[in-house]
Amino acid sequence: MEYKTLPVALVQERHHGSAEANLAVIETRVAEAAKAGAKLVLLQELHNGAYFCQHESVGEFDQAEPIPGPSTERLSQLAKQHGVVLVSSLFEKRATGLYHNTAVVFDADGSTAGKYRKMHIPDDPGFYEKFYFTPGDLGFTPIDTSVGRLGVLVCWDQWYPEAARLMALAGADLLLYPTAIGWDPDDAQDEKNRQRDAWVLSHRGHAVANGLPVLSCNRVGHEASPLGASGIDFWGNSIVLGPQGEIIAEANTKETLLLADVDMQRSEHVRRIWPFLRDRRIDAYADITKRYRD
Predict the structure, then answer these.
(1) Is 130 tagged catalytic?
(2) How confident is the model at residue 10 (pLDDT cuts 50, 70, 90)?
(3) Is residue 99, in this structure, part of any structural domain at all?
(4) Nearest to 270 by CA among 246, 250, 247
(5) CB–CB of 164/153 below 8 Å?
(6) Residue 235: is its pLDDT beyond 80?
(7) What residues make up the domain containing 23?
(8) How many independent structural domains does the chain possess?
(9) Is position 45 within any domain?
(10) Does any domain span residue 294?
(11) Given the residues 13, 93, 155, 217, the one annotated as active site
């Protein structure tokens, strides 16, 4: 079905102590979203548990599960029950010793529309993801659903214009980012503000450069570090943007169900007056595949 206006919902939540508790909250939130008319629901990154990548521990691999598996079965039924397209984010066990950070998209009939494995994997203080996740191998391929072609990316991917561009070049109708990002509570307030503002600006840049709506769903709440460090305050601020980077809806730092209506016809209008794809100098971009131009 082609939507002129697509009602969307972003489930911005904290960790509730266990996968069972988190999934129960998700079920309640998706029901609320569907009741409000949402046809597309976006969940945050690694929504089943705490953000475990604050440390490196082999015990954390016990949380990973196969796809398909118990969580995908439960989420599939949830999507079907409420007739929504549901974008999830799971810790995938592909094989023993091989794990991915994987977004799975369920169509409104409960079928699995597709999946995306996170391509860019960070390794920073408090975000030790390279220990856990193998970089994705499915490429930047949009996922076709009943509400449109979704360019699903995950968290650290949000800093890379190449990822957003390749999704746009493959015909994505929207860009979606499940994410888990926050600041060190010990940072000065001006540094916190710079980090959050840079995050918002990065998303707005992807929207403008590609003439596409952007949805980004972040988690909230303080999560303590297993290493005894200060932990992370996840800043929320989940956001829905139009194809000129305009803010359609924005959350604060609390748990919330962010609802918005996305005009799916605006990209056509915007790309006619700002034809960035037409004017790309693809004949001069060969060096973009180099690590650095020495």
Answers:
(1) no
(2) very high
(3) yes
(4) 246
(5) yes
(6) yes
(7) 5-289
(8) 1
(9) yes
(10) no
(11) 155
